[in-house]
Design brief:
The protein has 431 residues and is α/β, with parallel strands linked by helices. It contains 16 helices and 15 strands. The strands form three sheets. It has a six-stranded parallel sheet, sandwiched between helices. The protein has a six-stranded mixed sheet with strand order 2-7-6-5-8-9, sandwiched between helices. It has a three-stranded antiparallel sheet with strand order 3-4-15, with no helix packed on it. Helix 5 runs parallel beside helix 6.
Length: 431
């Protein structure tokens, strides 16, 4: 891992270089994705079948073969060991309990002259959920996306998941059952995103697409945004651990590994004002890494993008945290609550020595779909509010129309929009 010190004259530029990650698609990838989207729009099911057979090495003849019957989801759940069933159900219940507290209600108020103003909150009609099927299977992502959608009241939740070589992951299907997914199609890649965005003869178009994916999926989501909504364009996973030097170095090393094992571009950073502790954590990394099944991925991630940052004090540590704006922030300190007023930018904050980030990935309750690549400066975790929309309510009484009509008319005249002015004034009492 790279070692940085805030005593260095070039510290902030070195930190910026450590964080740098090119999130935009290469031109070749973008052109490929645009062609896939065009094929789906023009040829519908035929293109969906052809592309699925090509990229996932399958032999599908009709688009209807791409859909998994709903009873198959329950079958997958029933086939899990009892501990697996209990873990999925308990995780889903905790996620549901947390997200039920995010629900928003419609509201309005009435002014003295009878004018009513307010906001109506309604769920999205249909949402598409993308689930990766490449390097690893993610039943936890199914729950984190599906449960808040259902809490929000989404009418229909359609999941897409690639099944290369006809390999279906039973945990993913079981999670779809527990999460309340309505329909499942075994398609992936940019073609799945395009089918969700524009619809085909077999797959219905959705209003919003959520869920993680590779660079082709991310590029496709960016291109179709505007036709449909999307959750975010997520970059590689990140963790920043702040340690006061009193946490077991082995614990911290494993927490850094937990995100580094996602992929080679993941980022793990330790920030501490205890130089001896920093070296102890490095020693733990060296000791524990050879024991990890995904050690090659972890080693590449730590070598390319990992960092141990030694700062002067707690105040400077907080400054670094807010600059990094990490997806996951662990406050491995004696009094983590005292730190909260200092933290302005972080996707999720894990408080105290005993709160491993991995708990949040699976079963704590808050969502694990979080802003990456410093976007926590202006965005938030996925939640119920991402599956709802708000409509403004305006009702004018005759008296309200008179008062507001004169104000609107005056402002419209100032803008040179005379039809606006006339429209507002036509309802003025006594005209």
């Amino acid at each position: 891992m790279k070692h940085l010190s805030s005593n260095s004259a070039d510290f902030w530029s070195e930190l910026a270089q450590l964080l740098a990650w090119e999130s935009s698609s290469e031109e070749r990838i973008e052109q490929t994705v645009k062609q896939i989207i065009a094929d789906i729009r023009q040829q519908g099911d035929a293109a969906l079948v052809e592309l699925t057979n090509k990229f996932d090495r399958r032999a599908v003849s009709k688009a209807m073969e791409l859909e998994i019957p709903h009873h198959r989801l329950k079958q997958a759940f029933d086939g899990l060991p009892e501990a697996g069933q209990k873990s999925l159900a308990t995780a889903a219940a905790r996620i549901r309990s947390y997200h039920e507290r995010q629900t928003q209600s419609s509201w309005h108020y009435v002014e003295a002259d009878g004018t009513l103003l307010g906001q109506q909150v309604t769920p999205l009609d249909r949402v598409g959920l993308y689930v990766p099927g490449g390097k690893a299977a993610y039943p936890s992502s199914v729950l984190m996306n599906a449960v808040p959608a259902k809490v929000a009241g989404v009418g229909q939740l359609i999941m897409v998941v690639p099944t290369p070589d006809e390999v279906v992951n039973e945990w993913v299907l079981a999670a779809a059952y527990v999460g309340g997914v309505d329909r499942v199609f075994t398609v992936g890649g940019a073609q799945a995103v395009a089918a969700l965005a524009y619809g085909t003869e077999t797959m219905p178009a959705v209003d919003k697409i959520v869920g993680p994916g590779n660079i082709y999926v991310a590029t496709a989501k960016r291109i179709v945004f505007g036709t449909v909504g999307i959750d975010m364009i997520a970059g590689p996973s990140e963790i920043l651990v702040v340690s006061d030097g009193l946490t077991d170095p082995d614990w911290i090393a494993m927490d850094l590994f937990s995100q580094a094992e996602h992929d080679e571009d993941a980022q793990s950073i330790l920030v501490t004002w205890d130089a001896e502790h920093a070296m102890a954590v490095q020693a733990s990394i060296d000791k524990l890494l050879p024991q990890q099944p995904r050690q090659d991925i972890i080693r590449t991630a730590l070598t390319n993008r990992g960092g141990i940052v030694v700062v002067k004090d707690e105040q400077e540590a907080a400054k670094v945290v807010n600059y990094v704006s990490p997806e996951h922030l662990e406050l491995s300190v004696e009094d983590p609550q005292a730190w909260l007023p200092k933290i302005r930018h972080a996707g999720a904050i894990f408080m105290g020595r005993y709160t491993a980030e991995a708990i949040g990935d699976y079963c704590a309750g808050p969502n694990h779909v979080l802003p990456t690549a410093r976007t926590a400066r202006f965005s938030s975790p996925l939640g119920v509010y991402d599956f709802q929309k708000r409509s403004s309510l305006i009702f004018c009484s005759p008296e309200g129309a008179a008062t507001l009509g004169e104000i609107a008319g005056t402002l419209a005249d100032a803008e040179g929009l005379h039809a606006h002015a006339a429209s507002a004034r036509y309802r003025v009492i006594g005209r």
